[in-house]
Amino acid sequence: MRTRTMLRLVRLLAVAAVLVTSQSSCLPAVTGLSVDFAYVQTAPPVRRVEVVTRAPAPGYIWIEGYWGWQSRTYVWVPGRWERPPKRHAHWSPGRWRHHDRGWYWVPGHWR
Predict the structure, then answer these.
(1) Which residues have C-beta within 8 Å of that of residue 1, sequence separation ≥ 6?
(2) What angle (nearest 5°) sits at the alpha carbon of residue 51, between those of residues 47 and 55?
(3) What is each CA distance from 40 to 9, 57, 92, 98, 102, in whole angstroms?
(4) Less Cβ around it within 10 Å: N or C end of the chain?
(5) Domain residue spans of the chain
């Protein structure tokens, strides 16, 4: 239980640091390496149904598209094929979460 509390505190501090240094955007880079953070007052649209094309080569996995926030509107970030960074890695998709201040984006990442 104590570890969970510490993890929440670290996440909260990281979010606070991003809030202090960010502008009003919640659209993460397609690579997922950098994220500006802001609360959005309107819920994201319904997820789009994408046509998944053939993988460019064996070993690639499909990363689903998502609704990102840019300026004052949601924009669709299309899905893509990506090679896992290491063997047995799997993708944890990003998601919109609701908080009493509004909606915020939690980016996807490799596990």
Answers:
(1) none
(2) 120
(3) 22, 37, 22, 9, 5
(4) N
(5) 2-110
